[in-house]
C-alpha cells in the first residue's frame, strides 16, 4: 500500500514527528488500533499542561464497529461521515469548563487543545494518523455524552493512513494537496510599550 509522505516545508528544521504530522482523511478500514496504542495516546494527553493543574479534558473513546462509534459518527457533518467511518476509532474530546465548586475554568478549552496536541504527536510516533473535526452537531453529541457535564470540543479520527484513491471527491484532491501555512511573520503581533505616567 502506498501512502503520502507530506513533510512540512519549514524554514528551519523541526522534530520529525512534528514535520511529518498532517491530517489525513484516508484511513485503512481494516486496521484496528490496539489497546496499547490507545493507552499511549491517552497517556500523552493526560500529561499535557493545564492551568493550576486542573486537567479539564475528558475523552470518550469509541471503536469502529461498536454502537458507541456509530452514535458519535451519526453526530458528524455529512462530509466528515463519508471518510471518518473508516477510522479505527473516534475520540470525543470535551472539557469541564466549571470546577467542582461551580467556578468558571476560563482556560479549560485551551488546556484541552493542548491535550489533543500531545495526543496527535504521540499518534505520529505510534505510526497512526489523526484528523481533528469541528464539524459535528454539538447538541446531539452532548446528548450522546448525557450526564457528563462537559462541553464537546472536537471529534478526533484515529487510524492507519491509507491510499488517497480510497476517497471520493472532493476528499481525494484535498488529501493530495500541498500543505500550506501562513509565514511566521504574518502571525506575529506588535507590542506597544506603555508610556510611564
Describe the protein in words.
The chain has a domain at 31-163: NADH Oxidase (3-Layer(aba) Sandwich), CATH 3.40.109.10. Helix content is 31%, strand content 14%. It has helices spanning 16-20, 35-46, 67-73, 78-84, 108-125, 138-144, 171-176; strands at residues 57-63, 89-95, 129-133, 151-159. Strands 1-2-4-3 form a 4-stranded antiparallel beta sheet, with helices on both faces. The protein is globular and about 65 Å long.
Compile the SSE list and pairings:
Elements: H1 16-20, H2 35-46, E1 57-63, H3 67-73, H4 78-84, E2 89-95, H5 108-125, E3 129-133, H6 138-144, E4 151-159, H7 171-176
Antiparallel strand pairs: 1-2, 2-4, 3-4
Quick summary of this structure?
The chain has 197 residues and is of the alpha+beta class. The protein contains seven helices and four strands.
Main β-sheet, in a few words?
Answer: 4 strands, antiparallel
Order of H and E elements: HHEHHEHEHEH
What is the CATH first-level class name of the domain at 31-163? Alpha Beta
Write out the strand line-up for the largest beta sheet, numbering strands in chain order. 1-2-4-3
Overall SS class: alpha+beta
Shape: globular
Strands, count: 4
Distance between the termini: 67 Å
CATH homology-level superfamily of the domain at 31-163? NADH Oxidase
Arithmetic mean pLDDT: 92
How large is the radius of gyration?
A: 18 Å
Return the CATH topology of the domain at 31-163: NADH Oxidase
Low-confidence runs (pLDDT<50, min 5 residues)?
A: none
Amino acid at each position: 500500500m502506498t501512502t503520502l509522505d507530506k513533510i512540512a516545508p519549514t524554514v528551519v528544521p523541526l522534530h520529525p514527528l512534528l514535520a511529518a504530522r498532517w491530517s489525513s482523511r484516508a484511513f485503512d478500514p481494516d486496521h484496528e488500533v490496539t489497546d496499547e496504542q490507545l493507552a499511549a495516546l491517552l497517556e500523552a494527553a493526560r500529561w499535557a499542561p493545564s492551568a493550576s493543574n486542573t486537567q479539564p479534558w475528558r475523552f470518550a473513546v469509541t471503536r469502529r464497529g461498536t454502537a458507541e462509534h456509530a452514535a458519535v459518527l451519526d453526530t458528524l457533518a455529512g462530509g466528515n461521515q463519508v471518510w471518518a467511518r473508516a477510522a479505527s476509532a473516534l475520540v470525543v474530546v470535551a472539557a469541564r469548563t466549571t470546577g467542582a465548586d461551580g467556578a468558571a475554568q476560563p482556560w479549560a478549552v485551551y488546556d484541552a487543545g493542548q491535550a489533543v496536541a500531545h495526543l496527535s504527536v504521540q499518534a505520529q510516533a505510534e505510526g497512526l494518523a489523526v484528523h481533528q473535526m469541528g464539524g459535528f452537531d454539538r447538541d446531539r453529541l452532548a446528548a450522546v455524552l448525557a450526564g457528563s457535564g462537559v462541553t464537546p470540543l472536537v471529534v478526533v479520527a484515529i487510524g492507519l493512513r491509507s491510499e488517497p484513491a480510497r476517497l471520493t471527491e472532493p476528499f481525494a484532491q484535498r488529501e493530495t494537496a500541498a500543505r500550506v501555512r501562513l509565514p511566521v511573520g504574518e502571525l506575529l503581533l506588535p507590542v506597544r510599550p506603555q508610556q510611564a505616567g
